[in-house]
Amino acid sequence: MKNGDASPDRPPWIPGTDQSLANRLLAQLDPTERSRLLAHAELVYLDNAQILVCAGQGLSHAYFPTNCMISLLTNQVNARGLEVGLIGFEGMLGASSALGVSASAFDAVVTVAGQAWRMPMAILRTQCVHSRILNVLMVRFVYIELGQMGGLAACGQLHVLEQRLARRLLMCEDRMREPDLEITHESLARMMGVRRASVTLVTGLFQSRHLIQHRRGHMVVTDRPGLLATACACYAQNLALYEEVMSEPWPH
Question: What is the pTM of this model?
């Protein structure tokens, strides 16, 4: 499969709800602007482990997830695969590219399969030039991404694995909007930059506390308040940053 291609053997997906509102960034736009934007987009299925762009490459399309999840990963020799950003229905892949950045700083890989609105980057850039609101929306999300990346970097240095793993599971649950998470010990360990044995130990501890249920390839959040109490303050700070930035008045 080519980078960014939708799965060719998937049957057409018929949405059960208004998918134009399923992505929170798109839902921020007024109906006219949203319709104008989505006239150039298509709803595609993204497979698990699908590579959307590699670091140093130009992003050909922007992606607005509706029920999938995309991880931004480093490709540095000593930190390959370390997760520095996580994108779900609240965000998009390609905001900085829409504002004129020619190459991606990170690998972008689908970590939970699902649907997303896909739009040619050239068209999105043109739309940003002609729409002040859309341009501001891109700037705001880039700011949120920078805040998330800074928080993840600090979190990895300051907080113990229990806190970090609880935060990661909560972030996944938020973005997937359901407690049943398709995720493995191996992928968690790789993206968090820790040993798999450490993840297995902590998830076992979470299960003994009835915070999660674990079965092969899945983790089900069974006690969200308990995970919230376990997670570091970074989780709440990231949520507050998003809400603060997205609730700012729009320019006239």
Answer: 0.89
